[in-house]
What does this fold into?
Amino acid sequence: MTDSAAFAEETAQEAKINLPHSVQAIRKALLEIYGLPKLTPRERNEFVAAEVVRWLWRRGKFYQVRDRPEFASGLYFDAQEKVLKNIQSDLFQAWISDVLSINRVDRKFAVLMAAIETESLTERSLKIEPARFWASTKTAIYLSNAPGTMIRITAEGVEMVDNGTDGILFRADATLLPWTLTKDLVDPFVSCSAFSGMNASDSGKWLFTLWALSLPTSQKTKPPLVTTGPPRSGKTRCLAALMELYGLPPRITALKKNGDDDFWATLDGGGMVCFDNADTRIDWLPDAIEAAATNGVQEKRKLWTDSDLILLRARAWVSITSASPSFASSPALADRMLVVRMNARVGQTAESRLSEEIEASRNSALSWIAAVLHESLKVPDPGDTGLNKRHPDFASFAMRIAKAMDQEERTIEALQKAESDKAIFNVENDNIGKALLDLLEKGAWVGTAKELKDALYEIDSGMEKYSANRIAARILKLWEHLEALTKAQRDTGHGGFATYSFLGLSGDGEKDARKKAMAVEMDFK
It folds into this structure.
């Protein structure tokens, strides 16, 4: 190195050391405190803690979660590294211990951590709602990219920016695995076998693609996606592959009989979650998913307290797998779901091979998704399209994607089929509803609830356990879907008895749809 180059390097290092937010600056300040005479250990520790807090403010900012003002949710944003850390996390404590060269078991470390936690809840600390994995505004979509950077997608373009740009802050423990923007774009839903090998109808596969592309939009009301089919249909694998593609943590979890608290805690973590093998009846599940699908919350007592409450929000997109989805017998829940029916996969199904394909093309695939979202943001919002009654925002953005990809007819068909399939899915997964559909395969039927009980018994001897009143009550709950599916009518006769008229499945289209829907069940049997 020449003399001039060496001098320049030395000057740069000195300038770095003299910066008030540098690591060298705080170490030098602490050495000066250690050298002060006549300080008691308590005074020295308090001086150290105060100096560290001042240094942290020079280097970044303190934050607190808006609706959780507690020490456990205190946050610190390192403006030099562009990383947002929870103050009580191992990640932050290991960092501050290393920076200050103070062992975590040292008494002074406990004192300074208490001071840092206190600072995070003062009026000087800013209140925010930190982003998790992805975020969106009316004009931009943000995909996290490891703790310090993110990809900003707008109608103007796609670019990598620092975490914290535009006021969007991703927590260090809630970011996607790092990836690189590239001009080499690859459609993963065509190139990756985990997706292209799905044995589903074209409309079902396209519905899955629309849902997958919508994940980064962070819509307030998110339609749950149900993949249903027999064993070896890949209903779980395609969802796990989607998590691998985005770089999400593999949150595939089983449902527990008394696990509604776990359910909401999982959703509050954001991103995407898969509840696997929902094949047994769980009383709390339909109501919980209904609430989650419409931006619901769970208010619960904070552990180890008598009256302190915390709110758990439905931040994550919910997916469910099931071979026998009895939970869908809830009419309100069925009306909120998107269903992808699958049959047994053919071809390559080795877990490692499918994952290797995704890993090899992840940069190009995520760059392709970013490009699609960029083109979608150029398309004006069409407003309520009428293509999804419960989730108009999802249908609206799906149509923007469709316009950007020149797939409008395909998208309209997929969304319309998804709406009509809700009635079939609900009624078929109800014991009484399924028996009624079997009865109507023979043609129209008219009669009272008692006569309907007798007719259903001839179809299914298991109907014997249901009284006429119970059948009437269940028919009433299913009524909205039965009207759409069977052109049902209900009249009250002179004796006060209700007479039901079911005009059979509403045309050849519904009959064909029912036969296709039953194909999965037939394969399973």
Remarks:
- Residues 507-525 have pLDDT under 50 and may be disordered.
- The first strand starts at residue 60 and ends at 65.
